[in-house]
Design brief:
CATH architecture of the largest domain: Orthogonal Bundle
Largest sheet: 6 strands, antiparallel
Number of helices: 6
CATH class of the largest domain: Mainly Alpha
Structural class: alpha+beta
Number of strands: 10
Strand order of the largest sheet: 1-2-3-4-6-5
Number of domains: 2
Order of helices and strands: HEEEEHEEHEHEEHEH
Distance between the termini: 42 Å
Length: 273
């Protein structure tokens, strides 16, 4: 049935959905003199970040609905794909202008080229599209879930450990990758969860700092402790391969400090990682 729907959609494509009109009032205003999220990064420069605003439509296809998070090299956004009817919510990762050599795109392309029947292959979050914005690079992949839990309840922890061992075995044996704990995220198996995120933004707009034409948003806090959402959590997925190198040998400092191998610290020729 799903195959027939895809064929029908290809033969008779539906027009894009209209963008939502997000509220322009009622949101909490943050102190304009305080640093917000990515502004706290050691080498923050406003000019290096693509100016994203909630409600924007990127590439005439993806409407930005919420901010998911930030890092040293990118910001993450919860978006609505206006061109499809199913699985229409995605996460877009927008890199800094200075991130010219995008290692994550290279690695995900490399990973997709590996022909494998290993069950861990499905436990790596995939990239479905990538594109450029003016002055910045964007990376798009399916939104499974960005979940920063301090702890997992017992049932979810047991299931997570089984899947994590499977995907770690796959990445070590076939892709030769070392994974830090911050790369582990929890998938979402309930599509209605994303509709609730949209409703939350309409009812409780995201806090933001407004200074002239510049807006800095506070990331959305996922309600993982609420019984309303616990049934939505699925299997763990590995993601965020921005510091991954593809190739046989590397020199210089690679890998996160905590996981850096002795031969890297000693600046020896690096084996495949």
């Amino acid at each position: 049935m799903a195959c027939l729907r895809r064929i029908w959609g290809w033969l008779y494509p539906q027009p894009p959905a209209l963008p939502r009109t997000l509220t322009s009032t009622g949101f909490p205003l943050l102190d304009p003199n305080a640093h917000v999220e990515e502004e706290l990064m050691p080498h923050y420069e406003l000019a290096n970040y693509f100016p994203v605003r909630l409600g924007d439509v990127l590439r005439e296809q993806y409407q930005v609905l919420k901010k998911l998070g930030y890092g040293a090299n990118a910001t993450g956004w919860f978006c609505h794909n206006l061109t499809i009817r199913e699985n229409r919510y995605v996460a877009i990762k927008i890199y800094l202008y200075t991130a010219r050599e995008n290692r994550e795109i290279k690695f995900l392309k490399h990973l997709s080229s590996i022909r494998s029947i290993h069950p861990g292959l499905k436990l790596v979050r995939a990239m479905v599209d990538h594109f450029e914005l003016e002055g910045s690079k964007g990376l798009l992949h399916d939104l499974q879930r960005l979940l920063g839990l301090d702890r997992l309840h017992g049932a979810l922890l047991k299931e997570a450990l089984i899947h994590l061992l499977t995907v770690l075995n796959y990445l070590h044996s076939e892709a030769h990758v070392i994974i830090p704990s911050k790369n582990i995220m929890i998938a979402c198996k309930d599509p209605s969860f994303f509709e609730k995120l949209v409703e939350d933004e309409e009812q409780t707009p995201s806090p933001r700092k407004v200074v002239g034409d510049n807006i800095a948003y506070r990331s959305h806090s996922l309600p993982h402790s609420s019984s309303r959402f616990q049934g939505a959590w699925g299997i763990p997925l590995l993601s965020d391969f921005g510091e991954t190198r593809v190739g046989d040998n590397h020199t210089g400092l690679i890998q996160p400090n905590l996981y850096r191998e002795p031969d890297v610290v000693l600046k020896m020729d690096g084996a495949r990682r």
